[in-house]
Amino acid sequence: MRDLLQRLEQKRTVPIVKAKLPLIEEVQTETWWTDAAPFMIENIRLQLRDLIKFIDREEQTIVYTDFTDELEDLEEVNVPTRHGFSSHQYRKKVEAYIRDNQNHVAIAKLKRNEPLIYGDAIALEKMVYSADIVESREQFQKVYGNVNLKRFVRELVGLDRNAVKKAFKKYLKPQFDSNQIRFVEMIIDYLTQNGTMDNLLTYIKTV
User: Fold this and answer.
1) Is the residue at 27 inside a domain?
2) For the chain, what percentages of helix, strand and coil (3-state, to nearest 5) are there?
């Protein structure tokens, strides 16, 4: 069900899906499932069943059932609760944690395009890997792989626009024509939003 909700969440541009986003996100959390009762799950099914059609058809798995209902004496049983690990939820929590801590000295420097000294790099690793949400370096790398932490953080928080304009100021002078300046402004916009840009992407756009 979580996989279905994750794919439905990607259709947030659809107004009717967007209206249900708080519910879709809540049901994906482990906390919700801890106390979930059958009637709660049925309520979710009723509220979201009309949204399933917005999931890309090629992603849908058709399940056929052929059961005969047989109502017997009701018996109360204890159902063990299992908390499955969701890499999707883990990523959301980790990335939200980093974005919420942009005032951290190392993250602030990365956002301003300032170099990190050794102490900054150590502080950044400690801030990320020792956080309760992240759990550990090993868990982080299990989900994200062996990524460059500084690049990872910069891609999340982006770059300060003034810092980017300062780096490109020599290309914004009058000797360049309007198309060239607009191209540089597009790069500035991209870096402000995404923090990094592969050289290949720049090369392709200039051809």
Assistant:
1) yes
2) 60, 0, 40
- Token pair 């482990």 is at which residue? 30
Residues 6+ apart with CB under 8 A from 93: 133
Residue 65's SS3 state is: coil
Question: In the structure encoding, which two tokens stand for residue 173, read together?
Answer: 């002078």
Asked if residue 106 and residue 50 are part of one domain, the reply reads: no
Look up residue 85 and give its two tokens.
């690990």
Same domain flag for 191 and 170: yes
The whole-angstrom separation of Cα 6 and Cα 108 is 31
* Mean pLDDT value across residues 51-71: 63
DSSP category for residue 81: P
pLDDT of 110 > 90? The answer is yes
Structural domain contains residue 136: yes
CA distance 149 to 176: 36
Query: Which residues constitute the domain of residue 134?
Result: 87-157
Residue keyed to tokens 């300046």: 181
Q: Tell me, yes or no, if the pTM score tops 0.85.
A: no
The count of structural domains within the chain is 3
- Buried b / exposed e across 72-86, counting CB within 10 Å, b at 16+? eeeeeeeeeeeeeeb
Assign 3-class secondary structure to 6-30.
Answer: HHHHCCCCCHHHHHCHHHHHHHCCH
